[in-house]
Write a structure and sequence with these properties.
The protein is of the alpha/beta class and 323 residues long. It has a single domain, classed as 3-Layer(aba) Sandwich (Rossmann fold), CATH 3.40.50.1820. Helices cover 38% and strands 16% of the residues. The chain contains ten helices and nine strands. The protein has a nine-stranded mixed sheet with strand order 1-9-8-7-6-4-5-3-2, sandwiched between helices. Helix 4 packs across helix 5. GO terms for molecular function: triacylglycerol lipase activity. Keywords: Hydrolase. InterPro entries: AB_hydrolase_3, AB_hydrolase_fold, GDXG_lipolytic_enzyme, Lipase_GDXG_put_SER_AS.
């Protein structure tokens, strides 16, 4: 586990706290408009509206064998390298639209194109439908010539856990191992059993154990088991963890899901795999989704992009020397 990054001076630390609090206030204001009668379609539209739709990247929709996806490519990104991205949102909210800004930043930081996967969500579709959609999208990418060392898998929150579950499922699908994996505040344990649910409860302004367990029940339904590694990658056996590609896990120090990333990275290393966990001081859940407001988010995405670029054989767009 590494702590990113060096301590700030007191004034900049106060500024960072204020910026995070403003982001949290925006999120809470959106939550505050919802009640038990709010249609899920309205909640999804409100969530998407939190994030900018116009980004400095080429965006176009594509049908990946029935799974609606969105290509996001920063100017100069290599079309022969791809990052398959699975968005967060508790398996109920979120879309490639809500994560367009994040994916555009990741494309620029890595030099690869990003495929946002619009997997089906609850309550209409429960586990393992999102995982099945992820596998379908990966087979589609392979058919486009994007597999093995040409593709990486990434995701945040619920999508981060889904990305790891997808990576663990690929061998049984007969699909090659991707070059690398990236997660942002990954939800790896549907049982919400990590110690950070206790040690970070007072600091986390967004997520607490009862909420996460309720989301897990909604996702798993009657058929799902919180100990199934296809739902909770943290429960995977060491022999399965050894099949994973090199991983980078980023997580905020102020979130209850901290243990989900720290413990998963530790288990991968104990199994003989490669996994680095970066813990970002003062940051909350999926802080990377606010790169225009949080300097730490921009830095984290640059580091994540550099990690992926190194394994995909790309050059970050911003580092290229003009011809």
């Amino acid at each position: 586990m590494s702590e990113a990054h060096e301590a700030r001076d007191p004034a900049s630390a106060v500024d960072a706290v204020d910026a995070v609090d403003r982001v949290v206030a925006r999120i809470r204001a959106t939550y505050g408009r919802w009640n038990r009668q709010t249609p899920i379609a309205q909640m999804r539209a409100d969530w998407d509206a939190l994030f900018p739709a116009d980004v400095p990247a080429a965006v176009h929709a594509v049908d990946a064998d029935g799974v609606p996806c969105e290509w996001v490519a920063a100017p100069g990104a290599r079309p022969d390298r791809a990052i398959a991205y699975l968005h967060g949102g508790g398996f109920q909210l979120g879309s490639p639209r809500s994560h367009r800004e994040l994916m555009a930043a990741l494309s620029a930081a890595s030099g690869a194109c990003v495929l946002g996967i619009g997997y089906r969500m609850t309550p209409e579709h429960r586990w393992p439908v999102p995982l099945d959609d992820g596998c379908t999208a990966m087979r589609w990418l392979q058919a486009q010539g994007l597999a093995g060392d040409r593709v990486a898998v990434a995701g945040d929150s619920a999508g981060g856990g889904l990305a790891l579950a997808l990576l663990l499922s690929l061998p049984a699908q007969g699909l090659p191992r991707p070059a690398a994996g990236l997660t942002l505040s990954a939800w790896t344990d549907m049982g919400a059993r990590g110690e950070s649910y206790d040690t970070r409860a007072a600091q986390d302004p967004l997520h607490q154990r009862p909420m996460m367990r309720a989301l897990a029940r909604n996702y798993l339904g009657e058929a799902g088991d919180p100990d199934d590694p296809r739902a909770s990658p943290l429960c995977a056996a060491p022999v399965a963890l050894r099949t994973l590609p090199p991983l980078l896990l980023q997580v905020g120090d102020r979130e209850t899901l901290l243990s989900d990333s720290v413990d998963f990275a530790r288990r991968v290393r104990e199994a003989g795999g490669q996994a680095e966990c970066q813990v970002w001081p003062g940051m909350v859940h999926v802080f990377q989704q606010f790169p225009a407001e949080l300097p730490e988010a921009s830095r984290a995405l640059r580091e994540a992009g550099a990690f992926l670029a190194g394994h995909l054989g790309c050059t970050p767009v911003t580092q290229r020397t003009p011809a």
